[in-house]
Structure formats: structure tokens, C-alpha cells
Predict the 3D structure of the following.
Amino acid sequence: MEVNRLCTICARGGSKGVKNKNIRELLGKPLIAYSLQQAIESGLFRTIAVSSDSDEILDIAGRWGAQHLIKRPDELATDQAAKIPAIRHCVREVERITGDTFTTLVDLDATSPLRFAEDIIGAVNLLETRGVSNVITGMNSRRSPYFNLVEADANGFVRLAKKLETPVVRRQDGPKCYDMNASVYVWRRDCMFESDSVFNADTLLYEMPEDRSIDIDSELDFQFVEFLMKTRGKE
């Protein structure tokens, strides 16, 4: 079967943590432009689509290279709405418009501008060479649920989040753990429409370095990303 890849970028309006963050200017470009440019630079995609409830976001996305601008229904754009249904809606709409059926679906988070095109390529290659259902991205975790990550009960008493039969005395001795960075999600099309979870029996993780793994969810995140980008430009 011929590989036919679709890249989606889902960017709703009305962010509360950082106002208008998906189109807020970061070093002279709207935030969403970075993900669009990385998708184009990867050379992987026949089609790149942006899904949003905001006409302003869609207009800006079109100016920065999105080929299809998909208006998201209001019920898929609330604070409580899950992301997978929004991606499915976008995929179905693009397939209806183009008449294509895609084999590999890639979703890029608009709030992860530090990724490189090579991260997208690496995650897609991992899915297509291993033949798994889906791939997520993450970085090496600073905390381990087996050593120094705790959870609290209703009374506030804390305990290790996970226990092993033989307790570990160093974080490095526990099972390898990762922080999901919400940067790149890759699915086989059939898996995307069969499972409502990003965790399947054969889900793989593509590891990214910490300095490319920040997801902007607060003003502090935005300032930190801006600092790293300025530093990167001086290298």
C-alpha cells in the first residue's frame, strides 16, 4: 500500500493559560507558524491541515502554509473537549474534501515550537518501520514514580507512586520513565479510529531531548521558550 500521510494541527481559540497563545507572536512569528514550517520542512506530508474554531487562527494558518483549513464544531472546542475527536473530525473532513484515504496520521501540537523537523521524521519512521499502532514523544523524566515521585491520599499522606518488590536506592536503578511532551503524535489510520486512548498495547515512544520538549501552557513556559529560541539563534 502506498504511504499517504496527513499532518493535522489542532489549535482552538480562547486559551486561558496564555491569551491567544496559538497565534501570539514568538520572535516575530505567530506560534502556530513554527509547527507549520516544521511540517513542511520534514517533506513527509502530501497534505497539512489546521483545525480550529477560530477564523483568525485559520486565516493565519493559511498564510503560513496550511493547505486545508477545517472549521471545528463548537462542541469539539470547549475546555473539556478531548483532542482525539477533534483530530478525527479534521481527518474525515480532509478526506471528504480531497477524496484521499490517508495511511499515517500525524498531529503536531501548536504549542511545541522547539521541536525539529527531524523529530517528526523520527517518530513517523518509528511507526512505519515497526508497524505499531501509534507513537508518542517524550523526554527522559526528571522524577521516577519508583523513587522520588509521590502521590497523596485524601488525608494528604504521601507514598511512592509505584513500588517494586525490591526498592530502588537510586533513580537510575528503576525502570526507564519518560515525561510525555505532547509534541508529536503518530497513528496508523485504523488505530486512530478504533481507540480513544493514546496508549495501546504496542504504543512506542520516540525520545526527544529536554531542550526541544517544552509545551507552552503558561506565561513562564512562553518566556522560557522565547529565551531558548534566542539562545539557539546565537549558536
User: Anything to note?
Assistant: The mean pLDDT is 93. The chain has one domain: 5-141+177-233.
